[in-house]
Amino acid sequence: MSNDQAEGLKALLPQEAATRLQSLRVADGRATLVLDATGLDSSARSALEAAAKQALSGAEGVAEVRVAMMADKVERRIIAVGSGKGGVGKSTLATNLAVALARQGRKVGLVDADIYGPSQARLLGTEGQRPVAHDSKLVPIASRWGVPVLSMAHLSDPGQAIAWRGPMAAGALTQLLEGHWDGAEILIVDLPPGTGDVQLTMLQKFKPAGAVIVSTPQDLALMDATRAMELFEKGGVPIVGVVENMAGYACPHCGEVSDPFGAGGAEAAAKTMNQTFLGRIPLDMSIRLDSDAGQPPAAGEGPQAQAFADLARKVGEWLDGGASKAHP
Ligand SMILES: Nc1ncnc2c1ncn2[C@@H]1O[C@H](COP(=O)(O)OP(=O)(O)OP(=O)(O)O)[C@@H](O)[C@H]1O
Ligand SMILES: [Mg+2]
């Protein structure tokens, strides 16, 4: 990268982008800009981003333009999505909860706290992108769904096994959580399964405002969900409620709804634990296919999107009303 090249590109920027420019770097034909988005709403941000991109694309030596936005500080609260048991749909739930909240006008970011098995880059379609650092803090990657994200998947190569010890994993999590989240009022954190170092760091250091517990309807998943609820409660983190995922399978051929994993178990478990039941997300082939393709179902239309929208509304209301609404 040459300084002259960066200076030359700065001169091409429209006035507003130039005023808001925090940094501009060029490497391997890729120009990366960090802009201060303080005070801009989302349409003004998009317009600023588009104008900056347009001004630089086609400039000599620039094959690609990336724009990262940093915004003013707002009060930010963390909602952790946890389960105890693996594979019940935490990551899917976290993505779609975040996307649905963004659709409802909330400023929301997503942290993938699964250091060893990150999935949010795939789920949000941001694979292969690398975050820039500004003031030694990571700038979240903008996704197409209005939800900025930070995940280990953006910092390591796909398929690369991360054989870190607990303290290093906890350090990585800290980097993700301490990124430039200044514009986000809600940070959804996708937790890995279990009750290890990452979860402990999360609870002790970052004090989530609340936890959403995901369970499938099976007894075993429910037992693990109960354990997860106990972990959060012991850590002083209020439970927003329990979501039953993979509930009720609608046959794509005849439409008949069956319950491969049983039904209503999570609702009953929530009741037993004196917790709010936040609703059901159906077991649906399109949820898996769209998720794998980086196209969050919550961004679409139809019953799946509706189920996530309902969940997001309840979580949003819980945040607006404070923890007092957690135990009706
Ligand atoms: N409601 C659903 N309908 C259909 N498939 C689903 C649903 N929820 C999740 N899945 C699929 O189930 C698999 C596991 O989901 P996901 O990765 O979200 O679980 P997880 O709890 O985050 O897993 P891990 O514990 O490994 O982090 C994925 O292939 C996902 O697409
Ligand atoms: Mg996961």
From TrEMBL:
<dbReference type="GO" id="GO:0051539">
    <property type="term" value="F:4 iron, 4 sulfur cluster binding"/>
</dbReference>
<dbReference type="InterPro" id="IPR044304">
    <property type="entry name" value="NUBPL-like"/>
</dbReference>
<dbReference type="GO" id="GO:0016887">
    <property type="term" value="F:ATP hydrolysis activity"/>
</dbReference>
<dbReference type="InterPro" id="IPR027417">
    <property type="entry name" value="P-loop_NTPase"/>
</dbReference>
<dbReference type="Pfam" id="PF10609">
    <property type="entry name" value="ParA"/>
</dbReference>
<keyword id="KW-0408">Iron</keyword>
<dbReference type="InterPro" id="IPR019591">
    <property type="entry name" value="Mrp/NBP35_ATP-bd"/>
</dbReference>
<keyword id="KW-0378">Hydrolase</keyword>
<comment type="similarity">
    <text>Belongs to the Mrp/NBP35 ATP-binding proteins family.</text>
</comment>
<dbReference type="InterPro" id="IPR033756">
    <property type="entry name" value="YlxH/NBP35"/>
</dbReference>
<dbReference type="GO" id="GO:0016226">
    <property type="term" value="P:iron-sulfur cluster assembly"/>
</dbReference>
<keyword id="KW-0067">ATP-binding</keyword>
<comment type="function">
    <text>Binds and transfers iron-sulfur (Fe-S) clusters to target apoproteins. Can hydrolyze ATP.</text>
</comment>
<keyword id="KW-0479">Metal-binding</keyword>
<dbReference type="GO" id="GO:0046872">
    <property type="term" value="F:metal ion binding"/>
</dbReference>
<dbReference type="GO" id="GO:0140663">
    <property type="term" value="F:ATP-dependent FeS chaperone activity"/>
</dbReference>
<protein>
    <recommendedName>
        <fullName>Iron-sulfur cluster carrier protein</fullName>
    </recommendedName>
</protein>
<feature type="binding site">
    <location>
        <begin position="84"/>
        <end position="91"/>
    </location>
    <ligand>
        <name>ATP</name>
    </ligand>
</feature>
<dbReference type="GO" id="GO:0005524">
    <property type="term" value="F:ATP binding"/>
</dbReference>
<keyword id="KW-0547">Nucleotide-binding</keyword>
<comment type="subunit">
    <text>Homodimer.</text>
</comment>
<keyword id="KW-0411">Iron-sulfur</keyword>
